[in-house]
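User: Could you check the structure of this?
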Amino acid sequence: MTLTDLDRAALETTDDVKKVERAAMRAARRSRRRAEEGDHSGLASARGGSKWFVLAGLILFTIYSVGPAWWLIVSATKSKEQLYTTNGLWFADFRLFENLASLFTYQDGVFGLWMWNSTVYALAGAIGQTIVALAAGYGLAMYQYRGKGISMGFIIGSFLIPGALLTIPSYLLFVQVGLYDSAWAMILPAFFGSFSVYLAKVYAEGAMPPELMEAARIDGAGEYRIFFSIGLRLLTTAGATIFLLHFVAIWNAFFGPLVFLRSAERWPVMLGLYSWLQRGADSTVDLTSLVITGSLVATIPMVLLMLAMQRYWKAGVTMGSLK
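Assistant: Sure, the predicted structure tokens are below.
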């Protein structure tokens, strides 16, 4: 065999080796692709299983949340006999308007007075607490002063004090200063809340850039003008949150009015409905239907307030995304 033949044989052997290597690489790629497809299918099945699990949990949570409200709506349309003899989750004879007429005419329309009292207490208390909390939180977040750490310690430490523990001292104080059995006994204590101050402080630290305050000071704006013209606008979302939380809390308040209010004409709606429920029976009207219908009517202001204030949270989320 000549040298040329040897070279040719070596080249042919090299080509065979390359073909084998390429075949092996193709086989490896195919096996890798099959493995990846198997992993993807397994991951997809796992994701599908977790998706159905989450969906089932959301459905159960929705039923748990909406169920009592649905029962309240259905029961408000029934008479006393139908409350105990028909399906509690479906309608019978529609008597909602008759129940509403009885509700607002019983005892010379005292339910309307209770609704007005709750509206006054909730609006005044929530507005006052929102202003106080935003001002205090803004000051804690934007200014440095001696004793700031101690102030924050008192604010955080006050979270540990149960509200019921302050009932007797507050009662004695209101009796001494002449606020007992008055609207101020419900409004003034609602102005102050340590959690609202802490919430406003945390939000102000992220929403109020110090450079903006420095620019306003250079332009000649005073501290009060900076707060009312710039600070309050940037803290709108925090203010809406604080206002809504405390409006609902004051509207649903029961223990405070029970201790601080004696006259029935000053009661809020929740305490008034409780007094009807405790009475049990009346020869002229069905108090059970009145309490159920009154409970339905009492939830309407909170629902309307929630719907009306959604735009403030949407604006806050949009502003945060632009930052």
